[in-house]
Amino acid sequence: MILIILKLILAHLIGDFFLQPVNWVKDKEKRKLKSVWLYIHVAVHIALMFLIVWDLSYTVLIFSIGLLHLIIDGLKLTLQKKKTRRLFFFIDQLLHVSTIAILVPIFAKSDFEFTLNLDLLLIICIAFLTKPTSILMKTIFSKWNISKLTKDNESLKDAGKYIGVLERLLVFIFIVVGHWEAVGFLITAKSVFRFGDLTATKERKLTEYILIGTFLSFGIAIVVSLIYINLKPYV
C-alpha cells in the first residue's frame, strides 16, 4: 500500500508542477471549465499514473483519482477569487493528496514488493524540494509586491530560484548524511553574502523578504529531511 501511494504522489508532483506550463494555468484561470488545458492536464495526470504504477490492475483506482482531480480543479477554478488564490492553492494540494491517501486503501492490493520504496521516497523528496517548493514559496510571497522591492536590484535571470533549489538540496543531503553542522555553515555563508549588501542599502523591506524566504526555504528542507529519515525504516 505504501509503494502505490508513493508512486501516485510522485505522479502528482510531476503532473502538477513539472508538466504544467504557466500558460496552461493562466488559460484555466481565465476560461475555467471551458479551458481545454484543464482536461489535457487531467489526461497528463492519468497517463503519468499508468506509466509510474505500471500495473493495469489499478485502472479503476487511477481513473477514480483522475476524475476526482478534475472535480477538485474544476471547483477551485470556479470558486477562487484573486484574494483567495493562495488559500485555494493549498486547499487544492491537500485535497489531491488526501484523495490518494483515501482511495489507495480501498483499491490497492496487499501483496507487493517493498524493494523500491526507499528509492522512490528519496526521489519524491528531492523532486518536491525543487520546482514544487519554488512554486509553493512563490504562492506564499504573492501576498507582497516582490517585483517592486527588487526593482533596482540587478541579478541574473532566475538566479534566486536556482540558489533556493541548490540550498534546499544541500540541506537535505547534509541532514540525511548526519551533518547538521554543515547546515549551520550554509546559513552563515548565505548570511555573509546576502545580508552584507542589504546593510549597505538599508532596505528594510527587502531585508525582511530575504529573511522570510531564507527561513522558509531552509525550514521546508529540514522538515522534508526529517520526514525522509523517519519514514525510511518503514518503507
What's the gist of this structure?
This protein has 235 residues and is an all-alpha fold. 78% of the residues lie in helices and 0% in strands.
Account of the 3D structure:
- With 235 residues, this protein is an all-alpha fold.
- The protein is 78% helix and 0% strand.
- Helix 1 packs antiparallel against helix 3, helix 9 packs parallel to helix 11 and helix 10 runs antiparallel to helix 11.
- About 3% of the residues have low confidence.
Task: Please give the structural blueprint.
Layout: H1 2-18, H2 22-31, H3 36-53, H4 59-79, H5 85-107, H6 117-128, H7 131-141, H8 146-149, H9 159-176, H10 180-201, H11 204-231
Helix pairs in contact: 1-3, 1-5, 1-6, 2-3, 3-4, 4-5, 9-10, 9-11, 10-11
**Major sheet description:** none
For the termini, the CA-CA separation is: 10 Å
- Approximately what portion of the residues adopt beta-strand conformation? under 5%
Shape: flat
